[in-house]
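Human: My hope is that you can spare some time for a protein that puzzles me. I am handing you a single protein, as its sequence and its fold in token form. Could you go through the record with me and say what the backbone is doing? Take your time, and here it is.
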Amino acid sequence: MSLASIVKMTEIKRTNQVLLERLLDISKGKNVSVGRHNELSPSIVSAPRSLNYLNKRKEADRIDRENQKIIDRIIKQGPSYQSKKLEHEY
């Protein structure tokens, strides 16, 4: 690898890390505003929240909890067939 490609890969990793941190902040409900000081997307400005933001957020949280419960039940259920028995019958 050349020095230029290593530098480029490092810059891409740094940019990806910044984007990941922003996505995590957004998913946690933090107010993330992007202004002119941002080198990644200088034209984006945070929009005002809707009047029923709290209701939407509560509904999204409820759906997330329900989805997590479904995932937990699926994981705890285990397989519904026995692979050794199927191999033996084959």
Remarks:
- DSSP finds three helices and no strands in the chain.
